[in-house]
Write a structure and sequence with these properties.
Number of domains of chain A: 1
CATH superfamily of chain A: Aldolase class I
Strand content of chain A: 15-25%
Largest sheet of chain B: 6 strands, mixed
CATH superfamily of the largest domain in chain B: Sulfite Reductase Hemoprotein, domain 1
Structural class of chain A: alpha/beta
Oligomer: heterodimer
Largest interface: A-B, 30 and 40 residues
CATH class of the largest domain in chain B: Alpha Beta
CATH topology of chain A: TIM Barrel
Distance between the termini of chain B: 52 Å
CATH class of chain A: Alpha Beta
CATH architecture of chain A: Alpha-Beta Barrel
Shape of chain A: globular
Number of helices of chain A: 4
Helix content of chain A: 10-25%
Distance between the termini of chain A: 35 Å
Strand order of the largest sheet of chain A: 2-1-8-7-6-5-4-3
Number of strands of chain B: 21
Radius of gyration of chain A: 16 Å
CATH architecture of the largest domain in chain B: 2-Layer Sandwich
Number of domains of chain B: 4
Structural class of chain B: alpha+beta
Radius of gyration of chain B: 23 Å
Number of strands of chain A: 8
Helix content of chain B: 25-40%
């Protein structure tokens, strides 16, 4: 599946569960409920392969993922409506409050919000409807100025 | 005063370019109308009753003469030669087109102005005391703090899509002239025992259909921590504010549902995280901002020959009513009520704007301010120039001595412009002005606030007025509810409804009736607010509805 990752157009093997037809079925992204169910197998040591990715809705509580965050390969967030501000706070919390370092993916019709989503911690984007990814890439750079007053101090 | 540097101007240009692309995609049918609506609102563009309207930010109500001239040019080029100053210290152009709006924004950017976040569900223009940095009762100058909050809130990526609009006001004086207690977040700045700047943070105040006085979230917080507190408050609101019902989406509803104590606990736990992330307070950056507000030096211009100081009654009355004491004993604060007879409150034509820009250059360090009462201020006038200033202001009809008086009323645009309005406002105020066209009578009534909104969104702040008037729609007809005894200051109070709504035909007579009652029962020196607190509404109700009771069977002028 085509994806924008770190501002480049590339492909990803990690797919939401419903669209998975692929051979490597371990690279799945499960809805939070199913993901939590699967978790029991990993807790008991019954399964040892990498954790599946998890798909969150805007109202998800990241506290539920807390103890697994170093092991989750991808967190996808359903941005059904880009004007639902909760998704921006959710990504910010995952990055800044919980220190989640792997992929945070936004899925939706989000062309005009790529830059803000990125500033909140999203690094991967699956675009739905409308523009091509090639055109959308240009939208990251529309405004390069910021006052740097909201940004956390960088660790280095 | 703070003026944007060239990187900021380029930023505003790139923002205008971005919007131009969005407009093109919308007009080409690529961008859906509902998506475009969200994007255009954050660029100040509304689609109103008769025409699109654009609202331009005047950060905390301060602008330069060059900016005022640019607004005059915009009024001529894109509108019908005038603009409308609002209760949130902005200016609106009521007759623009969607197609032209990107060019309008580019023209604004040339002089460091913009329309970013002047509408939509996001942090709006920061407002403050229009006498900031001037008034003898000031403890802390709020202007640098406003500028800091403005920079922080501009395109803040986490808080660009809030459940509803979000208004922040800052005050640093004994008297609250910024209606801090009627904002989503209100900030009082004051001095601690060792002269440090402290903040009292209030949340959940507001007008609208559910008027609420803000509640104290924190007292005595070092002002350096303000941004971390703002982050924490808005983070909690962004996550938990209601998004399913726009009438219950303001932060006041969340605060009321949670209760202030539980809301405070939530904010405090998030605050800890943000303050860790934020790192050291950047003192140097703040001092740079502070320095940009240094008092302007005024040149020692000669007074033009044709102005001969004559201490006429008109001049003395103007001094008494329209000027105020300044921290600098050699200067005065000059107020310009935009309420001349026959004009819509807050309206100004382009020629007056240019003339005023010249006056400001000559006598006030090139600075002009907008007040939340829809008036303008010349902040730096030397006392020895007052007569010349009065003379010039008279020439452009900006010297009517009615500041804070009955005819200096706050009025939203109402049915004449706004698609939300239930009733007209401007024609009512014009009629009232005609009915009471006697400055002596207006001065006899004295200081009084009359505020009027055309619908319950309450843009005219009618809840916080001595006499508040709210337009309502009853079966397609215009009616008005009257409230008395509201107050926007530190003794914040929501006005009480006096009785059944009054018809369009009767509303001016009803206001006159209330004024007569006040003149009748007031004690010597007693203000309208004090009088209402002493007597309650009863005497007003008795007089107002007496006639109606008698003629109830013959008239439909009082609704149930």
């Amino acid at each position: 599946m085509q994806i924008i990752k770190n501002r480049e157009i590339t492909r990803t093997a990690w797919l939401p569960d419903r669209s998975t037809q692929q051979a490597n079925s371990s690279q799945r992204i499960l809805p939070l409920d199913s993901w939590l169910e699967q978790l029991d197998f990993f807790r008991t040591g019954e399964r040892s392969e990498p954790l599946p990715g998890v798909m969150l809705q805007p109202d998800a509580n990241p506290e539920l993922l807390k103890e697994w965050l170093t092991k989750i390969p991808v967190i996808a967030i359903n941005v059904e409506n880009f004007a639902d501000g909760r998704v921006y706070s959710l990504a910010f919390e995952l990055r800044q409050f919980y220190g989640y370092a792997a992929e945070i993916r936004a899925i939706g019709a989000i062309y005009d919000n790529l830059s803000m989503l990125e500033q909140c911690g999203f690094d991967a984007f699956v675009l739905q409807g409308g523009l091509s990814a090639e055109e959308a890439i240009g939208y990251f750079n529309e405004i390069e100025f910021d006052y740097s007053l909201w940004k956390p101090d960088s660790p280095d | 005063m703070y003026q944007p540097d060239s990187p900021e101007k380029e930023f505003y240009q790139s923002r205008a370019d971005q919007f131009a692309n969005q407009v093109t995609r919308y007009l080409d049918g690529i961008l859906d109308a509902d998506v475009f609506q969200q994007l255009r609102l954050r660029n100040g563009l509304y689609v109103e009753r008769y025409s699109p309207m654009i609202r331009v930010a005047i950060p905390y109500g301060q602008m330069s003469s060059a900016q005022l001239r640019a607004l005059a040019d915009i009024a001529d080029r894109y509108d019908r030669g005038y603009g409308h100053f609002t209760t949130r210290q902005n200016i609106q152009f009521n007759w623009v087109t969607i197609e032209d709006s990107p060019d309008l924004l580019r023209d604004l950017a040339e002089v460091g102005m913009h329309a970013i976040q002047t509408s939509g569900s996001c942090v709006r223009n920061i407002t403050t005391d229009h006498l900031a940095g001037l008034s003898p009762d000031e403890m802390v100058d709020p202007r640098p703090w406003c500028e800091l909050i403005r920079q922080w809130s501009t395109l803040h990526p986490e808080f660009y899509w809030l459940p509803r609009k979000f208004k922040i006001a800052v005050s640093g004086a004994i008297e609250d002239r910024a209606a801090v207690r009627f904002h989503d977040i209100g900030i009082d700045l004051y001095r601690g025992p060792s002269n440090q700047t402290l903040a009292r943070i209030l949340v959940g105040g507001g007008m609208g259909r559910t008027p609420v006085v803000g509640k104290v979230l924190k007292e005595s917080q070092p002002a350096e921590n303000l941004l971390a507190w703002l982050q924490a408050i808005i983070h909690v609101y962004n996550k938990h504010g209601r998004r399913d019902n726009k009438y219950k989406a303001r932060i006041k509803i969340l605060v009321n549902n949670r209760g202030i104590d539980r809301f405070r606990e939530e904010v405090e736990s998030v605050y800890e995280k943000y303050s860790e992330l934020q790192g050291e307070w950047d003192e140097r950056r703040f001092i740079d901002i502070e320095n940009s507000f240094a008092r302007p030096e005024l040149g020692d211009h000669a007074i033009p020959d044709n102005i001969i100081p004559v201490h006429s009654d008109g001049f003395l009355k103007w001094i008494q009513v329209n000027t105020e004491a300044h921290t600098d004993p050699d200067r005065a604060i000059v107020q310009l009520p935009l309420k001349s007879k026959g004009a819509a409150p807050g309206d100004m034509d382009s020629e007056s704007m240019r003339n005023l820009a010249d006056i400001a250059d000559y006598y006030s360090g090139g600075e002009i301010r907008v007040t939340h009462r829809q008036n303008l201020v010349l902040p730096w006038v030397q006392k020895k120039r007052l007569h010349a200033v009065w003379h010039h202001l008279n020439e452009i009809r900006l010297a009517t001595p009615n500041l804070g008086m009955l005819t200096d009323s706050i009025v939203c645009p109402g049915l004449d412009y706004c698609s939300l309005a239930n009733a007209s406002t401007i024609p009512v105020i014009k009629e009232l002005g005609d009915a009471i066209d006697d400055l002596d009578r207006i001065h006899d009534i004295g200081k009084i606030s009359l505020k009027m909104s055309g619908c319950m969104n309450a843009c005219g702040h009618h809840h916080a007025a001595d006499i508040g008037i709210l337009g309502v729609d009853k079966k397609g007809k215009e009616w008005y509810q009257i409230t008395l005894g509201g107050n926007a200051g530190k003794r914040a109070r929501i006005g009480e409804r006096v009785g059944p709504a009054i018809s369009r035909q009767q509303i001016v007579a009803a206001i006159l009736n209330i004024l007569d009652t006040y003149l009748d029962i007031r004690e010597s020196g007693e203000s309208f607010g004090e009088c209402v607190r002493r007597t309650g509404l009863k005497p007003y109700q008795e007089n107002l509805y007496a006639d109606h009771k008698k003629s109830r069977n013959h008239t439909d002028s009082v609704a149930a």
